[in-house]
Each structure stands twice: as C-alpha cells, then as structure tokens.
C-alpha cells in the first residue's frame, strides 16, 4: 500500500564527472594555488601538481578496475574496499574516509566563510567566520535532506557558478591594467614577470617543498565523489572510470592554466600604494628589483617585509595557511584510503590497470604520509590498527570473496610447495595427528587433548569414518563451526567405508598435502570391548595393527567416564548435544604428569608430555619419568641423554620406580575369551579360524612371558602381534590402564627419532 518512490539515476557526466570536479575545485584552487606558485615557483608548482595527479590517477585506475570487477551496489568507497579486502579493512578505512570527507567539508566551509567576511568587511575575524560557516553548513544539510534530485540540481548551480568564476578570471587576465591594479602587483602578461616567477622563493615556516606539497594535495582529492554514489548511477561499471579520469584531466588543466597565468601576470611583492609609482614621484634612493623595471618602487616594503599585496602576500591566501590541523587530517586519511584502494583489485577487467603500478602508488602514498607529517602518519596507522583489531576480534559473519582470501590461498600453496623440497630433520619433527573423533562434538575430550599439544605448532585432522550401516551424520560445515567455536585449530574430513580399518587406512593414505601429512594416529579406547560384537573388536585391533604397518605412531586415550558424550546425553533424555567442558580445558595447577617409558620408540612417549607443559594450563605440572630396567641397562647411553634432555624440558622432573602389575585383573578380563580345548573336541585350529578373537592355552603361554615380565605402564602401547587374539590384546591394554582416575594415554612411536639428543 506504500506509494512507489521514483529512484533517481545519474549518468556519468552529472553523477561522476561534475560531482568529482566540484569536490576537487573550491577553496584550494582560489586561495592556495597562487600562494603556492609564489613560494615554489612555476616549475616546482608544476612538479607538485603532477606528483599529486600521479597519486590520484593511479588510485582512479584501481577504482576503475574494482568497478569493472563485478556488480556495484550502494556503499561507495566502503563497499569497494570491504568487498575486496574484507570487513576487517573495509570498516576502518571506511570510517577514516568518512571522517576525512567531513573534515574536507569543514575546510571548504571555513574558506568560504573567510572570503565572505573579507568581501563584506566584517568586524570580528573569528566569530563572523563561525556564524557564516554555521549558516552555510545548515543550508547544505537542508539540500542534502531534500533528496538526491535537489542535491543534483544544487550541484549544477554550483558548477555553473564555478565555471563563470573561471571564465571571469581568465578574461580578467587579458583586460588592460591601470594604476590601481599595478599597485597591487598585477601588470598583465609580461615575459620578465614570468621568468622571475619560474624559480622558487621560499618564505616563512611553511616555505619548503613537502609542506607546500602537503598544502596543495587536498586540491587533488575528491576523485571518489562519484564512487560514493555508485548505487545511484545508471551504469557504475562504465561511468566511474570515464567520469573520474575525465574529472582529473579537466581539473589538472585548470590548475596548470591558473598557475601559469598567475606566474605571468602578478609579481610576488607589491605595496598597494599608488604613490610608489616612479611616474608620479621623484625617488632619490636607488631603486632595484623587478618593480623598478615596471615603473614601481616596492623596495621599502620588500626590505621591511611589509608588502601586503602580490602573490606571496595576499591576505586571503595567507589565512588559508592556518588550516594546518585540518590539512594534516585530510591528507593522512585520504592517503590511507588511497593506499588501501590500490591493494584491493582482484581479477580486473579494466585494461589500463596494472598491479605493479598500483603497488608503486601504494608505496608512494605510504612514503608521502611520513614525509608530510610523520607523527600524524603514526597516529593514523595506530587508529587503523586499533579499528582493525576490534573488527577482527568481533569477527563479522560475512563472506564477500575478498582478495585477502585469494592472497592467503596463494601464500599457503607457495609455502606448501616450498616445504615439499625440504628434507626432514629431527629438530623440526612435529606430531601431526590424524584423530579418529567421529563427529568432533561427540568426543570433545579427545579433540581438546590433541588440540592442546598441536595448536599453532603442528597439524591436526579430525577424521570421521562413516560406516555404511550407520545413521546420517552432521553436516561438515556445522562440525567445522563447532571446532572454531571451541578454538581448536584442526581440519575435518570424513570418509565412508565398510569397516573402521578400511576407512582409517584410506584416510591415512589420502590425508594431508606434501609435508603436511599425518604421522600419528590418535583414537579413543574402546570401552565396550567386552560387550561389543567380536567382529567389531577384531576390526578395532586390526586398525591399530594397520597403523603400525603404515609407519604411524599410535596414541590411545582412555578416560574412566568414557569419551563419547552421547551416552550421557541419551541417558538424560536430551535430544541435542550440549557444550561439554572437558578436563583439558581447565588449569591443572601443580600436578604431575607421570611418564612410564618401557621401550625406546624414538622419543614420542617423552615428546608429547613435554609439549603439554608448554601450554599455560599445564606449565606448572611436574614431569615424573620412570623407565624399566631393560631401558636403563640395555639403552644406558640413550637413557643418560634422555635424563639430561628431560631436565631441559622442565626443571621439576623426577624419576619414579615402577610398581608391579596386578595379575588378578588381567586374568579376570581374559576369562570370558578363553578357549577350552575339551569343548572344542580337539579341533582347536578350526575354532580359531572361525573365532580368531578366542584365546587358547598356546596363545596365553606365548604371551605370558612378555606380559608378566613387564611392569604396568601408563604410556607405552604394546604392539599387537599377528597371531595375538584381539581379546587378549584388549585385556592387555585394560590391565595397563584400569583403575586410573585421570586420563591415560597409551602411546608408541614408529621408531622414528623425534628427540634432539638422537642427532647429537
């Protein structure tokens, strides 16, 4: 039921070119350019103009390339930067650019108010400027509130007024002079005046090149005015490049013509007193300088520095030099915006765009910011970094396909390829873990534990083996979001297979890229191994055996309450998985990490506990290491180096004696899987073939010396023998880890040396 609003769409002339020219012209052209010409001379003034145009033209080509890179919506410069560099950089630069535009409006308003004050010969120099400026801003605000149509009509009126003033200026330069004009320094076009004004004549505290460049540069800004209304253009893709570059061209020609006409018609110093004419007064003193050749004696005011007229002494021009703070803010914020704009283009269709030219322009803007005002440049970058950190911390949930994403991809690809050509060394070893978590939110403790010692230093991949007979799984995107919310730096991948062994084998072969490939398999302890199907138990043990055959290190985490949180959730009648805080997310305080080192597996058993102590939650924990007599006697040399190396790890280490294992628990766990030869009718081999998980007397006799001669350990994982039944192997692990009320990690390396003392 709402009335339809007719949208106003502008073409490239009215929407881009005229709008940009109006923002480039203004107080800068009328009040500063003649004074800069007098200070720097015509040659250096042209250098300043062309240097500014180089900066703005390179920026314009980058803007043109971005505008042709895709569909342009409302949002102006912020839209272009944010959609190309992301919201992290788009928001800070957008805020600075908006603030710089507001300050530029204040600059033009103050210049207009001072001109009105001088023309009307008002009394109060300060308050009159404030009153006129406030009235001007209110009028402009009312025009803006009236809508884009009224604003466009006002722009046409302003443009006509500026064009009439320019015509009036150039016509005035060819009108014959009189005595009053000559007394203030205007003599018409003369070659000697032009030659005199070619070279610089720096005066005052602002009399050096880069300060003059800084004062002039706001005259070159305003090129993004057409971009700011890109959503209201009929064809932003074609209108922005054409209108912006033509606006730069016409305004540059106007600056060049104004500079050369000023330098050719007006002397630097004039008294404004008609009695200083040599034709009226007989001067007894010797007359020097350019004024004497023109029939005027300006020596007295030049020597006393009291000349009130001429290019270098115009009061309206001198007043504009008091805007130092406004100028500093504008040039730094504008240069910062231009610097970012040149780094935003990605896949441009604009043929005149060159990434190397844009890089040169960015570097030039960066250098000029510090050459103009170094402290203001530092403040600007500090503000940008603060806003960048804030937006990065808040992490807006948007994806605009930025060039930063493309840059990160290229960097990751390049580094991965470079890393492939580097030979492995023990000093650079990292436990790169493939973790069989299933859906990661189902086993949060397992995810948190591995993420604790791999975060920021190593690779972690959460693998989910989806059996074909299982229920539908969660989406990958949801599980990746869960990992990010839990602040776990891990990849996630899934694989559909008929069995756990098949899926794990395929993941171990296919996971990773180049050197970023897993070398350690981490999985949870099978808590229901006594109640599950025998085929499932055999599949679990075969997975461990296959990992050893694939030269992987193995780590099995056991917790007395189990790892799967779905059991507790289902028992509580909850239909969703809540956020569960595991023990690995809390500070451990001054506790101990006990390491039972039974066999020399390359050092992985010692490396993982050490990596835990590098984290803040575990840094107060004490490492307590115990080793068997076999390790102490048979590997005495390595053991001595290990003892020294452990003290390097932590100065709170101690060696513990091993306790004797309980045989009762071991015998109780294997009892249900014993094979009675009397019940088998003497055909033990046939029953073993049909039920490989059963334990015969022969199997028990073969394994007993290996078990009973070794004391219980909480770290070293036994290697499953090919002829060892799965139930016997699981009972072995159960006997090693049963009754421990803290997490137990059964770990074994692949005999690859991972400790630095092996290479010394």
Automatic annotation (TrEMBL):
Membrane-topology descriptor: Multi-pass membrane protein
A single BP term in Gene Ontology: sodium ion homeostasis
Bilayer-spanning residue ranges: 12-31, 43-68, 89-111, 131-149, 156-175, 208-231, 243-267, 317-338, 350-368
Any one of the GO CC terms: apical plasma membrane
Top-rank lineage group of the source organism: Eukaryota
Domain Amino acid permease/ SLC12A: start-end pairs: 15-279, 326-434
Protein name listed in UniProt: Solute carrier family 12 member 10, tandem duplicate 3
PANTHER family: SLC12A10.3 SOLUTE CARRIER FAMILY 12 (SODIUM_POTASSIUM_CHLORIDE TRANSPORTERS), MEMBER 10, TANDEM DUPLICATE 3 ISOFORM X1-RELATED, SOLUTE CARRIER FAMILY 12, CATION COTRANSPORTERS
């Amino acid at each position: 039921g709402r009335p339809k609003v007719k949208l106003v769409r502008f073409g490239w002339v009215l929407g881009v070119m005229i709008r940009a020219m109006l923002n480039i012209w203004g107080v800068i052209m009328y009040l500063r350019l003649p004074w800069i010409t007098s200070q720097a001379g015509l040659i250096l003034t042209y250098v300043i103009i062309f240097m500014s145009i180089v900066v703005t033209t390179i920026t314009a080509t980058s803007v043109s390339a971005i505008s042709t890179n895709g569909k342009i919506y409302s949002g102006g410069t912020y839209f272009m930067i944010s959609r190309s560099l992301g919201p992290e950089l788009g928001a800070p630069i957008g805020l600075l650019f908006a603030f710089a535009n507001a300050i530029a409006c204040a600059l033009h308003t103050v210049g207009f108010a001072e001109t009105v004050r001088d023309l009307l010969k008002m009394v109060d120099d300060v308050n009159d400027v404030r009153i006129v400026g406030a009235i001007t801003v209110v009028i402009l605000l009312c025009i803006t509130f009236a809508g884009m149509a009224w604003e466009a009509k006002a722009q046409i009126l302003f443009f006509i007024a500026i064009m009439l003033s320019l015509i009036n200026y150039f016509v005035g330069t060819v009108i014959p002079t009189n005595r009053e004009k000559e007394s203030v320094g205007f003599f018409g076009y003369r070659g000697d005046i032009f030659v005199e004004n070619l070279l610089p004549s720096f005066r005052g505290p602002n009399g050096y090149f880069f300060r003059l460049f800084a004062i002039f540069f706001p005259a070159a800004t305003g090129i993004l005015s057409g971009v700011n209304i890109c959503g209201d253009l009929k064809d932003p893709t074609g209108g922005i490049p054409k209108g912006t570059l033509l606006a730069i061209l016409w305004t540059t020609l106007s600056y060049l013509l104004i500079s050369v006409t000023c330098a050719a018609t007006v002397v630097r110093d004039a008294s404004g007193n008609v009695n200083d004419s040599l034709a009226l007064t007989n001067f007894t003193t010797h007359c020097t300088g350019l004024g004497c050749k023109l029939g005027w004696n300006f020596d007295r005011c030049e020597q006393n520095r009291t000349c009130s007229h001429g290019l270098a002494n115009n009061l309206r021009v001198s007043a504009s030099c008091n805007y130092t703070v406004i100028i500093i803010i504008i040039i730094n914020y504008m240069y910062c915006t231009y610097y970012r704009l040149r780094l935003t283009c990605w896949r441009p269709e604009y043929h005149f765009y060159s990434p190397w030219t844009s890089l040169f322009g960015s570097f030039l803007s960066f250098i000029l910011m510090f050459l103009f005002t170094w402290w203001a440049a530092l403040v600007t970058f500090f503000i940008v970094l603060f806003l960048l950190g804030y937006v990065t911390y808040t992490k807006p949930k948007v994806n605009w396909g930025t060039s930063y994403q493309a840059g990160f991809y290229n960097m990751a690809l390049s580094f991965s390829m470079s890393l492939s050509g580097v030979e492995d060394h023990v000093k650079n070893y990292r436990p790169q873990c493939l973790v069989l978590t299933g859906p990661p939110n189902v086993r949060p403790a397992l995810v948190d534990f591995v993420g604790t010692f791999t975060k920021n230093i190593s690779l972690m991949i959460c693998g989910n083996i989806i059996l074909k007979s299982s229920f539908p799984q969660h989406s990958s995107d949801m599980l990746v979001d869960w990992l990010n919310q839990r602040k776990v730096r891990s990849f996630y991948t899934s694989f559909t297979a008929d069995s756990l062994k098949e899926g794990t084998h395929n993941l171990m072969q296919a996971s990773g890229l180049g050197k970023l490939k897993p070398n350690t398999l981490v999985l949870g302890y099978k808590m229901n191994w006594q109640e599950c199907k025998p085929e499932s138990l055999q599949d679990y043990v075969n997975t461990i055996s296959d990992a050893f055959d694939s030269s992987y290190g193995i780590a099995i985490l056991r917790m007395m309450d189990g790892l799967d949180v779905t059991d507790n959730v289902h028992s509580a009648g909850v239909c969703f998985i809540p956020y569960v805080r595991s023990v690995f997310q809390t500070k451990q305080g001054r506790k101990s990490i006990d390491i039972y080192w039974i066999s020399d597996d390359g050092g992985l058993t010692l490396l993982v506990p050490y990596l835990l102590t590098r984290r803040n939650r575990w840094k107060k924990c004490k490492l307590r290491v115990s080793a068997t007599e076999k390790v102490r006697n048979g590997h005495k040399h390595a053991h001595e180096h290990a003892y020294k190396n452990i003290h390097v790890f932590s100065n709170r280490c101690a060696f513990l004696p091993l306790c004797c294992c309980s045989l009762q628990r071991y015998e109780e766990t294997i009892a249900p899987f014993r094979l009675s030869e009397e019940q088998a009718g003497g055909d033990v081999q046939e029953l073993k073939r049909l039920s490989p998980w059963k334990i015969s007397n022969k199997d028990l006799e073969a394994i007993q010396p290996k078990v009973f001669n070794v004391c219980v350990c909480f770290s070293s994982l036994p290697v499953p023998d090919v002829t060892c039944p799965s139930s016997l192997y699981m009972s072995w692990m159960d006997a090693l880890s049963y009754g421990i009320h803290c997490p137990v990690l059964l770990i074994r390396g692949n005999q690859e040396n991972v400790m630095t003392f092996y290479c010394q």
